[in-house]
Records
---
Amino acid sequence: MRRAAALALSSAAFFMGYYTRLAWGILSSYAGWSTSSLSAGLVFSLFFAAYVAVQIPAGIASDSLGPKPVVIAALLGLAASTALAGASNGVAAMYAASALMGFSAGWVYPATVKLIAALYGPDELPYAMSYYSLAWPLSIAALGVTAPEIAEALGWRGAYYAFASVDLAMAVAAALILPGSAGAGKSRQTELKAMGSRGAILLAAGGFIFFTAYWAFAFYAYDYLLWLGIPSGVAGLIYSLTAIGGISSTLIAGSVIQRLGVRRTYAVLLPLYGVWRPNYSPRGGSPASTR
């Protein structure tokens, strides 16, 4: 039961990192600022610049201190940065909030993955990671149907403050639930030359292509749907539906990988993903910013 609670909380922390980073793509429509797609893109770029910068330090800290304090600190930082986003009075302040949000969220993944790896054995780990990875499709599915409703009820600032409250509550839960010793002081030495191997380079290139297409769509899909003339509530629902398939595929990912192996799974599914992406391109023009 303790392992299941730790897994659920780890996934929830990963969920909030996704949810809050995507929220501006919807909440900006309610802010009333005259912002361009370029400035919105810069908000997201600053998030990921900070997110990437802390990945290696987060792994080192998780090895030396253990995952628990890293997760707690990350959630507290995420709460503070999300509240700062709600208090922003212009795009410049949102830039700062987004960078701080990325800095905070970037610690969640390395720490929680290390925690899960410490709690689950080799046979159980693929399934545990499948449940953990539900966070990304669930965050998109939930965001599209909840963020517009919350923004209309509380205002866009109130929505950010509500998200910050959830982050804070999760930090308290992490302090109470996560095992303090799991994963502490355990690290695996990886030779640097392995990072330059052909397999590592191909995986990195494939991941780059995948996430470039994925985030470009996720960040601008809501604006694109509004540009098509779709009402905000319906646009939010369609936005959520784009992630529904990811829920079922994430659940079966562990079984697929065990049967096909990592290489075959990668070789089959990544090209299929690429084939379908052009279907989302605009017909007869480019969407102007709806903000």
---
Amino acid sequence: MSSNKINVAVRVRPFNKREIELGTGCIVQMQNNQTILLPPPPIEKDRLLRGVKSIVA
């Protein structure tokens, strides 16, 4: 049986001024050596109508 390991690096940059003004929240948390990804908050209906888009890579 193979004992392959996968290492993943997560880098979170500080929020820029626009993101702070929008009240953006961080969905990445660290606990010891574990990375926890939280589900993003639901998008408000008025933001959808303005055409604000999010790209997740």
